[in-house]
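Posting this for the archive.
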Amino acid sequence: MFNVDLARIGAITLRISLGIMFLAHSVILKYFTFTLAGTATYFASIGLPSGLAYIVFALEAVGGVLLVLGFQTRWVALGLMPVLLGAMWAHIGNGWVFSAANGGWEYPLLLIVIAAVVALQAPAAVPRREHAALAPRSTRSA
């Protein structure tokens, strides 16, 4: 009989979803849609150094891959918090709803909460056996 650890499956799903979001936001949005040069121009238009756009792109792309792979998830999620706080800062003047002109700040806030939960749920060691949440548990004692 299979004994499925639903809490662990939920934590894995949340971590992978956050990683995919970072990959989509960096590669699809910043690289393909707006281009890195366009993103740098936007950063400059809101008073940030334009070179910061390239750093944010790299952090989101690499961090997204690491989250999907489950490597040092606590530190990666915490390390991406400044990026998410910066995104919230960039959108705070647009109002709450993300469908507002230029996007609101509730989506970056939600991502901050998700990153915090991922960091809190991450195992202390590198999670090499996350598939174990789906593995059958023995009913015999050792």
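The helical segments are 6-33, 36-45, 52-69, 73-79, 81-91, 106-121. The chain has one domain: 8-122.
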